[in-house]
Amino acid sequence: MQLPVHFSHPEPPGGSRSVWPVFIPFGGCSGRCIYCAQDLQTGTETQDPATILSDLRHRLEQSLPHKRSPPEIGFYGGTFTRLPLVWQHRFLALAREYKHQGLLSRIRCSTRPDAVEPEQIRDLRKLGLDMVELGIQSLDDKVLQASRRGYSSDEARRACQTIREQGLELGIQMMPGLPGQTPTAWQGEIREVCRLRPDTVRIYPCLVLEGTPLAGLWKRGFYQPWDTERTIRAVSRATLRLWRKDIPVIRMGLHPERDLLPSILAGPWHSAMGNLVRSRILFYILFGYAMQKGTRRSLRGLTAPGGTRGSSGAITASIAQGCASSTFPPKRSVTRRTIDSPSFSKRDPWRKTPCLEDVKRL
Length: 362
Fold this sequence. Notes:
The chain is α/β, with parallel strands linked by helices. The protein is 37% helix and 19% strand. The protein has eleven helices and 14 strands. The strands form three sheets. Strands 2-3-4-5-6-7-9 form a seven-stranded parallel beta sheet. Strands 12-11-13-1-14 form a five-stranded mixed beta sheet, covered by helices on one side. It has a two-stranded antiparallel sheet with strand order 8-10. It starts with a strand and ends in a 5-residue tail after the last strand. The relative contact order is 0.14. Residues 330-334 and 347-362 have low confidence and may be disordered.
């Protein structure tokens, strides 16, 4: 009789917060990075701050009272801490008003590492800011220079320290596949991100978008983006490394905005990048378990937690794809089902008794 082997999902809690995004494309930006097309990436046309603030107030008044639980609000799409101070204060004052009413839970913004000053961050915290997400993108100085980011890796580290010292939560945004970057080097950058101990991480694989300086390099043959398979492999390994340090990865890949899709010239685009990455991680776990046990026998079935119901098909497809190129073949087809349980289980021919596996040790 074959009994199941159980193991917990390695993803830490905290990755499913509801955030109301407010996009301020290119707001506060002194230049343009080589890959950037904020209007396409956010699906928002460039507008003056007064119009954005007025529209935001109207949308908050119309929508927030009807929400069951208060979301967070996040100011994205530019360099928030380089907006004129009056607009930083006005945006935060509006958000704080709804936060005090219990209609918003937290306030966050995104900015650049070289736009973080201790006194300013302290003032923004007093105005209600809870988290700063830093668009670090890379911790390799050569990659940063090739991407025209305009700061060094040391500045990025200091910015992380400043945000922590001022009592705010820290988010880090990373971008694999930038010019001059290799998957091996990027894994080293992720190890350093783990040492920085952010509260959340976003991973946006680099795409070639029409109208960007990177598109010109690509058309002239001076840049080649990572393909989808290389990206899934690199991001899944990085994500598992972050999960093992209890760091949630709250986004993988750009949101499929209407104007974005026709503007993608090249690069690892997939509308379900997060599902593909999570599925590949599960395959790595199963494969690691098989190698630990020194077996090349077949995987016969997988029972997944109910929370993975929407991605169970992608999970099985990823397992099948990984098995096809490994010494861990499935037995004809891998059966799957979901149950109301926090853990996975698999049916295999290796053990006669059930056991618990701590995935973080694999």
